[in-house]
Amino acid sequence: DFLPFSQAVADYARRVRGHFPKLKIFRCPMSDQVGTGVPENARWIQFSADLQNPYMGKEMLHCGVEVK
User: Fold this and answer.
1) What single DSSP character describes residue 67?
2) Among residues 68, 21, 18, 16, which one has the least CA distance to residue 43?
3) For 1, which DSSP code?
4) Is the pLDDT of residue 2 over 90?
């Protein structure tokens, strides 16, 4: 249930992030390995630069790439 919401919020955030300087958008290059239907490079937002990947669990909590 998190994936569609996270993708939609990240898409919206790309358009408005100029108004929110602390807003960060990250992507997970390995998210397609989580399960069926999860795309590669699934995205999420954070207001902290301390990357915390919601897709890969504790084992890979800090794995991801910031979307510029």
Assistant:
1) -
2) 68
3) -
4) no
With CA atoms as reference, report the closest residue to 4 among 48, 46, 43.
43
Interatomic CA distance for residues 67 and 64, integer angstroms: 10
**Tell me: the pLDDT tens digits for 9-27?**
999 999 998 899 899 999 9
Please list, residue by residue across 1-17, b when 16 or more beta carbons sit within 10 angstroms of its beta carbon and e when fewer do.
eebeebeeebeebeeeb
What pTM value is reported for the model? 0.82
Q: Give bridge partners of residue 55 from the DSSP assignment.
A: none
Helices and strands (DSSP H and E) totals, the chain: 1, 3
